[in-house]
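hey so u asked for the seq, here:
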Amino acid sequence: MSRNPERNDRKSGQKPTRKPPSRGGAGDASPASKGGPDRGGWNPNPPAKAFSTSAPRSGASAGRGKVDADGFVWGRHPVLAALANPARKGMGRLLATADRAAEIEREALAHGHAIEVIELQALERMLPAGAVHQGLAFKVQPLEGVSLDDLADPADGIIVMLDQLTDPQNVGAIFRSALAFGARGIVVQDRHSPALAGALAKASAGATERLPCARVTNLSRALERLADLGWRAVGLDGASEETLETTLDHRPTVLVLGSEGDGLRRLVAEHCDALARIPMPGGFQSLNVSNAAAIALYEAGKKQRSLA
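ran it, structure tokens below
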């Protein structure tokens, strides 16, 4: 409906009258409020943002409103992993439907967190549309990550570095694979990576709560520091003449993966000790970055075990 009264009154021929602005009442719009290494319990997420703890709006006319996905972890595995993380003790707001609340109490999975029973529809209004929450959500403030030196010193094993990957599903899947294949942790650039919550935490199946993550300002300088600590960086590049099998060895390895569209940036690639591709004999030279990460992690781990 147009907000221009002249347009609405053209058929009547009457000159529209303008009402004086309201000085209060239910129709007034108000400004939105502003929100602000032990693998079992560390601080994985970016700097804290304030969040509202107000109860969800009720009624069909309330609508979903703006959802702060970065302030939530949802789904059974991600929420239970967050509850079990000692770094989150005494934090957050645990929301559960009645059946899930009974399960958590029966199996002692709350780890000291109070359970707030909530109706299914009210919970869904608090989360993004289509969120597969399984009757559980945990509203939390993000936690800080570990430092690069804490993650990488002493040099041993495998670290994954993500060069401006922004898709939460891919990043979450990489966390899941990195944890499964025994990686030391993940390195991301602070300004160009999604928060470790919401859809990302769901895709990770709880791995973001258990795998250390270092957020750095500059990846090239981070690679220089890792080299000083004894790490060898291998970047994945589909155009490389070398394959992963011939490039990887037993030394502590940083696997560097580029963004979904552009791959590794030039300066990041130049700071890698080697670039390698994953052979694809099927003739279809396209692989999702999270799948590529899983293959690279498997190959790197196998090479280190066989040549150690």
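The first helix runs from residue 5 to 8. Residues 1-64 have pLDDT under 50 and may be disordered.
lmk if thats what u needed
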